[in-house]
Each structure stands twice: as structure tokens, then as C-alpha cells.
Amino acid sequence: MSLRCRLPGPSALSAALFVLVTGSTGASAHVKWFCAFDVAGSPVGLAEVLCDSFEQLVIVSLLALFVGALLERTILGEAMMRSLDRVTAWARENTELMFRAVCGGFFVSLWTLGGVILTPELTTTSTALPWFQLAIAAGFLWRQTMPLSALGIVVLFGIAVANYGVFHLADYPVFLGVAAYLALTGLRRELFGIRPLDIVRYSAAVTLMWASVEKWAYPQWSYPLFIDRPELTMGFDGAFFMKAAGAVEFALAFALICTPLVRRLAAIVLAAAFVSAIFEFGKVDAIGHSPIIVAMVAIAADDVRVPLRVRQLATLPFGYGAALASFIGLYYGAHAALSAAGAL
User: Fold this and answer.
1) What is the pLDDT of residues 30-74, one digit of tens each?
2) Which of 172, 153, 169, 171 is nearest to 161 (CA)?
3) Cα separation of 337 and 344, whole Å?
4) For residue 185, which of 173, 199, 204, 174 has the smallest C-alpha distance?
């Protein structure tokens, strides 16, 4: 039965609004860490993904982004920015320390676990890699050695690509963003005028937008979780919930590249979702998501102000639509090309 039959018109819109407002713990857990998956399998057809409920989810997402952007131009928006500045002052002043501490703990955890390259499903039988990960963790003790640790992260990413393929590692460009942050911060430089934190922000946005499309393409991977934890779907049909969860994640990810207040609020929501997922899924989730959690905290604390122009509001729907079409097209196009080449 199609989603258009089960959730017609206003019902789908109301459900979309509910999921978008409340967020989702289940959507924040990385399904590849807890359920069987098959990247080489056929994804859900685009005709099924792009049904009526999907269009309504996109409308609700755009509405939320537009309201957030409009709020930024008001006295209330400015008051919210000042409040965020006060609340996040410690994190802003100690952003580098947070990254070093969390990334150091992350790689010590990988060294302790053994058999993991970067994330739980990226396994290895190498006995040398854990010691390499410990060396990466040690590099965070001094600013001068941070670029070496960053290079180590890139090496691990390359090993994972060699073992699992580019398509699988497209889930994790945030690691490259964190590596760039650590290297540039250690060297006290920017990349062609782009701040290190902005590189992390862009890489996190790309990571989460790609993950959103994966929720639409392979909702069945999450169904075993819903059997064990039916409360995760909040009473919605599993297929629709995954579509809505993907819409939530895509909207919040796109918000990370929007105006200051919008991206700071999105980072807070994402950080809260990732942290709340830890209570459901335990230490594996805590370890795996710690680099992106610290990135969200740093983005939420970033007090850079950029004047909002009317032109930005006018182009918001086009930018969001272009991003949505690009990521869906890239995901499905890359999957089809790699499948035909036997590279998945």
C-alpha cells in the first residue's frame, strides 16, 4: 500500500510537522552500527520516495527554515543571539580544547576496543591500527603535533575507503572536516580565508544530508530497530517515520549552512538528538558520535554575525531545492553507476 493512501493530505502534513518539531532519537542513531545492511542492494525507487507525503515534508521543512531566518531579523532574534552568546561562552572560548579532548578520547576508545577503523561497522583484523590510533590520540596533547594527528585521521579514512569503498565512506566526510580543523588550528591558519570551524560545519552538513537520503533509500535497514523499540516511531508507520526522520535531518543539516541564528539553533537540536540517542543505544553510539557532537556544540557556540539580506530569504527555497535534488541525484546516480561497475 502506498504512503499516499495511508497518510493523505492534511494527515501527512500534521504528522510531518509533529516529527519535525519533536525530532527523533531513533533517527539520530547510525543504523549501520546496530542493524544488518546491504549497500549493494537496490534502494527504494524514486517514485516511492517522491510521493505526496515527501512533498509535504519538504514544505514543512522549508517553512521551518524560513521562519527561523525571518526571526533572525527581529528584536527577539537578536535577543536569542545574545542569550546564546552568554550560555555558550565557555564552549566558544575553549573550542580547540573541546576538540582535542573529545577526539583524544575517541581514539583512545578505538584503541581500547580494537578491530575498528573509524566507526563500529568499519572493522579490521589489523593489530597495528589500534596502536596507530593511540598515537593519533597522543598527538592531541600538544598543539604542535595536532597536524600529525589530523594526517593520521586522513590515513585511517583512506584505509577505510580502500576496504569499504568510496560510496560507503560518503557517510563520513565529517572526519575529514574534523581533520582539517585540527590541522589548521594546530598551524594557526585558515584555508583560503575559510575558518577551520566553518570547514567542520560544511563537512557536517554534507555528512548529515547524505545520511538523510540514505534513510529514504533504505528505510528497511531500520525496521529491526522498530521491532525491538517500537516507541522510536512515536506511533507512526515505519516507512513514513523514516521518510519524516530523513526530512528532519536534511532540514537541520541544510540549516548548518544558513544564517547564524538558524545554524546555531539547528546545531543545538542536532546535538540534543545525538546525546539523547546515547541513552537508547549505549556507549557504542556515544563513542561513534562524539566527534560530531563536539562539532555541533562548537557551531552552537560560534558568535559570528553576518547581516541577513532580503535576497537570502528570497533564494532560500531555491537553495534548499537545489541541495535536495543534488543529494538525491548524487546518491542514486552514484549507486547505479557503482552497481553497474560491480564496485559496491
Assistant:
1) 677 767 777 878 888 888 888 878 888 889 899 989 888 888 888
2) 169
3) 10
4) 199
Residue of 242, 255, 174, 180 whose CA lies nearest to 213: 242
CA–CA separation, 308 and 3 (whole Å): 38
295 and 178 Cβ atoms separated by less than 8 Å: yes
Query: Which residue has cell 513514513?
Result: 240
Q: For 272-300, b where at least 16 C-beta lie within 10 A, e where not — what string?
A: bbbbebbebbeebbbbbbbbbbbbbbbbb
The answer for residues whose C-beta is within 8 angstroms of residue 250's C-beta and 6 or more apart is: 61, 208, 209, 212, 213, 324, 327
- Cβ atoms of residues 102 and 288 within 8 Å: no
Using DSSP, state whether 175 is helix, strand or coil. helix
Q: Model pTM? A: 0.89
Q: Determine phi and psi for 236, rounding to 5 degrees.
A: -85, 160
